[in-house]
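Hi V.,

You were right to ask for the full record rather than a summary. Here it is.
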Amino acid sequence: MKLADLAVLAGVSTATVSRALAGHSSVNAQTQARIRALAREHDVRPNQLARNLRMKSTGAIGLVLPLGHAKTQHLTDPFFLSLLGFLADLLVERGYDILLSRVIPDADDWLERLVDSGRIDGLLLVGQSDQFAAIERVSQRYRPLIVWGANRSGQHHLTIGSDNVAGGRLAAEHLIAQGRQRLLFVGDPAPPEFADRLAGFAAAADEAGVTHTVLATPMSPEAVHAAVAEQLAGGTVPDAIFAASDVAAMSVLRALAEAGIDVPTTTAVIGYDDVSLAAHTSPPLTTIRQDLAIGAELMVDRLLKRVAGEPAESAIVTPVLIRRQSA
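Predicted structure:
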């Protein structure tokens, strides 16, 4: 069966069938679903290579994790795995191949080399790391570039991400409401997302007149564990810890357990992300949830609009406090 035959069955034009199977935003979701169902039923598979050549398209989207600030971080991090999984599923459903890379920026033009490679139709960056300036520069001329990350006033590149300032504030307010008076932030305060989480956390503590300090550390589990263990060994025991991520919070829990410090009686702990493992730590981890399913849908929607030459704007996902036994 040809596309023209499928169009007759669906009661639409051949062009509409073609756009629907390509996931083009000009065809509404209900019509796309109906046409795809008919295509599966009749085993209609458009010639992707011919379509790509005709449309001057590669049929591929880049999925990139830039690690300028955290070279020890891996794609196996539960947060990255979850977001990448959602993004990959959505892109495959829309007929795209995926080019997945973990990039340690080795030169100022690393991002230019990616977007000018001729291998992709668009690029999704998971995190800004310390590469804000490079992303901002390239986005001035390359529109199909969408970033999961923080949004700064006046920035040019399009971002999707949680309201990290609000998330940090949620964590502090929850701890303060429990009567905690000696708050500690654990993590790397340099990347924009973590910096915003710290800013919200610190602002809420200042407004409440509560003491707060920062334990700056690289975000690898080993580094976080070592930094917290060293601080505890020195006799400094906070009554509440807010970790910049759930993975960091898990290392905090381990260090506290090894030091014989009860959680949450002596020290409460809150993470950020609500990865799947957070509910299975000991004790289960209180955390700030980022809805990655919604975030991924927004990223792919905005990217495909940009690929099609349509306007698209940044969006913010509202964070939610998930209460469990650690706080």
